[in-house]
Design brief:
By secondary structure, the chain is an alpha/beta fold. It has helices spanning 42-51, 80-86, and strands at 7-10, 21-23, 31-35, 54-57, 68-73, 91-93, 112-114, 121-124. The strands form 2 sheets. It has a 5-stranded parallel sheet with strand order 4-3-5-6-7, with helices on both faces. The chain has a 3-stranded antiparallel sheet with strand order 2-1-8, with helices on one face. The longest helix is centred in the middle third of the chain and has 10 residues, at 42-51.
Length: 125
Amino acid sequence: MSTKYKKVKITKGNRGWGGPLIIAPDENKNVICSVTGGGIHPLAQRVADLTGAEAVDGFKKGVPFEKMALVVIDCGGTARIGVYPMKKVPTVDIYPTNPTGPLAHFITEDIFVSGVKEEDIQLID
């Protein structure tokens, strides 16, 4: 029996950048990866709850890029902010960051959104 996943729209928060992102998990891309430290971030859990995907702590369990429907990060620097967009994984940064650092050219509005709060995540048809 296959799982029916739902879609969400994620918009930039106050002083944020990018997006909006439409996240539509499927049988192949069904992980919402939280790479924020300290467990699964509430934003990652909210997206998982709304879509039916699985929230995973990316620091505790490795997740292949091709399984990620979305990654939630907390990076104001240059590492994680660019790595996931470079791998074409839709990325939510909880901080209101802009493209920066040596990987900035990979950070585009169609794959990255920042400054996101829980109210910036909406279930869509």
